[in-house]
Amino acid sequence: MTSRTIAIRLISTLLTILGVAIVVFVMVRVAPGDPIAMMISPGASQADIAQLRALYGLDKPIMAQFFTWFGAILAGDFGTSISLRESVRSVVLDHLPATLELATLALLIAVLLGTTLAVIAARYRGSGLEVGIDVFNGLTLSVPDFLWGLLLILLFGVAVPLFEISGRVSPDLELPFATHFYLIESVLRLRFDLTRDLLGHMLMPALALALPLAAVIAQVLKTSLKEVLHQDYVLLARTRGFSEFHVLLAEALRNAAQSTKALADYLERNPNSIIFGKTE
Questions:
Q1: What is the DSSP letter of 272?
Q2: Quick one: DSSP state of residue 108?
Q3: To 10 degrees, the CA torsion angle through 155, 153, 140, 99?
Q4: Which ranges of the chain does DSSP label H, i.e. alpha helix?
Q5: Which candidate among 115, 141, 169, 231 keeps its CA 20 to 30 Å from the CA of 82?
Q6: Cα–Cα distances in Å, from 209 out to 35, 106, 115, 216?
Q7: CA distance linking residue 158 with residue 161, whole number of Å
Q8: Residue among 177, 260, 190 at smallest CA distance from 220
């Protein structure tokens, strides 16, 4: 990677951050409602309201408000939550470990599910099973993940209550955690009762997030597997008497997975690209 490429990407990143900041600020400003009215008591006087507006800089011109807000963000000050009365930064940092654990679990489910579907579809290529997997992939891509979440709640939280539908951990359990990475710490402390409880709370939202990505992985990997299966080294493995699943898993999968890795690299370089439809 040349210095010119690094400079172009850095400038592009800075412009993107500035653009996102402008869009967010404008959306917040044009949204209905007055933040001061949410913070102050109903019987407050006009002087109290004016004092509070001056405290938060809402009496300044709109451009001055933007640069004050953006400068505070660059300095790491994200303000105070109106509803929680806490620092936004501390609220984000407190919830970040749970988000990372959920995203990691969703990624693992997506990779395992997508790879399994791709191998099965490649093994039974040309059959009704492959058609069924293609239909499943199309369905999971056409339904947004939040709707999958609602469907999973109705199915496995209400109709057949197998999993918890709210919270991160059951309130009646003792929590000996020193950090907010509950799942990781429960495994390290050998508290597998907590691990099971945490996974019971995480499984449905993780599955809702994983389904669209699993469909993308399955479709790309299946196409690559079907191409690799015609290579000479795969045909040689068949002549040696290996089963079709052995050929798929031991010979074809390793090389076919490169296309999936290439897709991940492409998405990392072009995060705004839409591949196989919108998956978020």
A1: T
A2: H
A3: -150
A4: 3-30, 35-39, 46-55, 62-74, 88-123, 128-142, 145-153, 182-188, 192-228, 232-239, 244-246, 253-269
A5: 169
A6: 32, 6, 16, 12
A7: 5
A8: 260
How far is residue 239's CA from residue 162's CA, in Å, rounded to a whole number? 47
Q: Which residues contact 100 (CB under 8 A, 6 or more apart)?
A: 181
* 190 Cβ neighbours under 8 A, 6+ residues apart: none
Q: How confident is the model at residue 265 (pLDDT cuts 50, 70, 90)?
A: low
248: closest CA among 270, 266, 269, 233? 233
C-alpha–C-alpha distance, residues 206 and 101, integer Å: 9
CATH number listed for the domain at residues 89-269: 1.10.3720
According to DSSP, residue 82 is labeled: T
Paired tokens of 89: 């930064």
Cα separations in angstroms, 16 against 11, 84, 253: 9, 29, 37
State which amino acid sits at residue 80.
T
Q: Which two tokens stand for residue 96?
A: 């970040």
pLDDT in tens, 83-99: 777 888 888 888 889 88
Whether 56 has a pLDDT exceeding 50, the answer reads: yes
User: Which segments of the chain belong to CATH 1.10.3720?
Assistant: 89-269
With a cut of 70, say whether residue 187 has pLDDT above it. yes
Q: pLDDT (tens digit, 9 = 90+) per residue, 7-44?
A: 888 898 888 888 888 888 888 777 777 777 777 777 77
- Give the pLDDT confidence score for residue 276 in this predicted structure: 38
pLDDT in tens, 127-181: 888 899 999 989 888 888 888 888 998 988 888 888 888 888 888 877 788 888 8
